[in-house]
Amino acid sequence: MTDISTAQPIDAASAPTSGQRIRAGTQVYMYISLIIVAAIVVVPLISTALGGFKTLGELRGNPFGLPTEWQWSNYTDIIVSKRYWLQMSNSLIIALLTVFLTLTFGAMAAFCFAHIRFFGADYLVNYFLIGLMFPAATAILPLYIRIRDLGLIDTYWGVVLPQVAFGMGMSIMLFRNYFRNLPSELFDAAFVDGCGYMRFFWHITLPLSRPIIATVGIISFVGSWNSYIVPLIMLNSESRYPWPLGIMIYRGEFSTEWQLVLAFITLTILPTIIAFFLAQKHIIAGLTAGAVKS
Q1: Where is the ABC transmembrane type-1 domain (predicted)?
Q2: 146-159 per-position pLDDT tens digit
């Protein structure tokens, strides 16, 4: 007997449409792009951490591979060093002061720009946003003169105040967008009940703004923690050096102990990585809530 197979009709509904194929191709492209970006970020971190486990000779001959013999002493020597913990404490003091002042003044200014209408408000916002175009290095000479006139050279405040000033534009922009997207009914109901601006700010706005507070706080903390040029110019005493200046200790006149430099960098970037992962959910919520008009 001969079996005659009957062709089954193709369900048109199950066939992918051109729009679905385009979306699938877009998703594949997006995933590939994200993998490439992640590799660009992660590979240098892994190479830095592995380089801290090598000897100087092996690091020069094999900068990217695994160590043939793991030199744990590179890390332990730094961890038990009092100089390392002094620099970490200096960095922490400067970063926490910068975060506190940036959050305080940035949130207050952004609240005024978001809810209080007055002449020139938009011009003031644009004035602060112009500061995003210029890093601190472009104004280091007038900054140094002003800090010197205030008597703050070689003090923590001589580093904190410029960092707060140059971080104010970003903080005001993020806070203002977030505050303006909060439900306007809250604002109207609070004022009907006799709530003033300050009470509304402290008791209603701030408790609802934890995501954006975490976002601005992490951005400010990381920026201060990694700052190099401002501490280099404003600080003279080695006892007040933050960790970016501590790298200079391992640089000699004729040679540099690169394996110790890489171990030092690995240990000092861990706090920022930990802080990011702990606040990752709030950072994403803060940025997305401030970007979409409700």
Answers
A1: 88-279
A2: 999 999 999 999 99
Tally of domains in the chain: 2
What span, in angstroms and rounded, lies between the C-alpha atoms of 172 and 103? 9
Structural domain includes residue 71: no
Range of the domain at 26: 18-51
Q: What is the value of pTM for the model shown? A: 0.79
- Beta carbons within 10 angstroms of residue 167's beta carbon: 25
Predicted confidence at residue 62, as pLDDT, reads 81
Q: Are 38 and 170 in a shared domain?
A: no
- Same domain membership, residue 108 and residue 22: no
Give pLDDT, residue 1: 47
Does the CA dihedral 127-129-133-137 come out positive or negative?
A: positive
Q: What is the pLDDT of residues 198-216, one digit of tens each?
A: 888 888 888 888 889 988 9
Distance linking the first and last C-alpha atoms of the chain: 70
Q: What is the pLDDT of residue 6?
A: 54
Query: Final residue of a domain: which of 6, 32, 51?
Result: 51
As to burial, measured by CB atoms within 10 angstroms (0-12 exposed, 13-18 middle, 19+ buried), residue 67 is middle
Positions of the chain with pLDDT lower than 50, given as ranges: 1, 293-294
